[in-house]
Amino acid sequence: MSAAQPLPTADGEKDSLWQRELRQQFPLVAGHPELAYLDSAATSQKPRAVLEAVQTYLTTSNANAGRGTYPWANRTTELVESTRERVKEFLHDPEPGRSGVHFTSGTTEGLRTVARDWLVPYLGDGDEILVPFADHRAHLEPWLEAQRLLAGRGIDVQVRALPYQTVSGDYDHRALGEVVGPRTRFVAATHVHHVYGGDMNVHRIRAVVGPDVPICLDAAQSVGHLPVRLDDPALDVDFVVFSGHKAMALPGTGAVWARNTRGPAFRPDGWQGTPNTVGIVSLRAALDWLDAAGPDRIARWTAGLTTRLTDRLRHIGPYELLGCPASLAADSALAASQRRHGIVTFRHRDIPSDDLGFILFSHGFMVRADSLCQAGADPREGSVRVSLHVYNTVEEIDRLLTVLASLA
Ligand code: PLP
Known about the structure:
The protein is of the alpha/beta class. The chain is 38% helix and 13% strand.
């Protein structure tokens, strides 16, 4: 079976040639055909264009940003500032004159900055906020910290849990109506779930909470994986927080985009210090690379691989898929809003997940096998997560399925 095996889609043949060309641009992936990197939800591999942009910057104009007045410093300042605009453009920001972009080390720091510097001053005594208790821990702790900080100042804020549907892992939008009230002042939600891979349908949250409540979106698993378009009325959120390193940029990069139309404008407090200039350079190159590749096409490729893996795995006896039991492939009426995005998480009935992780690595598959940083998850009850990106191939999925079936 060749690595260029097409997916059975309308554009299967064309897409597989396109994908093969893209895969060659990832030196670490292309250099190790005996291995399969299936852990892109943790961090993505980096295309050569990103590595070269970093090297070019460091060997032609490395300096600090916003300080010196000589050419290297000016060039660095210009790179940092123009990358803010590039982030807005990448996200199809409909009002770039009004919004802001703040660079962080990743989603964790971004969410914490929103909580500490924007949410804390915004909330008052008796206000309520809605947050996810079964998403990534990075998307729970900052809101609880904000509540504690306010309590220390004598301001009592209620933290309510976003309800979930137990089988699919989606938010339960019907039950949501019961927890939203007149004092609901803020919602924290996730775009794509890091365990279940499902689109969490934030437009349904907006429909329930109404037009005035700010929503902060954890987009760690969507930016770089699928089109994230803020000009789409279905994505009427106020903050988009993401990790650059999961979107082809270097580790230690991320950003907060703030719409700045509901509540006060987002301005992180205090002295910001030297930015991660190299990371920001890499982020810019990564966004250029992603736009050139086409977020739509990337999403179509990974959705195809996800469908193939999910729909076959659920027929192999001892495996239990977490989240949506099926991939809700293209012919499903729900496909557009609920398809899994490049993440498939499962357990084997008899083999503990950490053992399964080791077994899979002995066959060359690099997967995540633990409790996946999920808030509230029992660390003893791990699972195995396969997470995909555009460099992954049909052949890798089929090889994985063969090994998984042999363990049945
Ligand atoms: N939120 C989600 C949904 C994630 O998947 C992750 C990382 O896996 C994070 C937040 C934290 O991202 P980072 O480690 O880049 O801060």
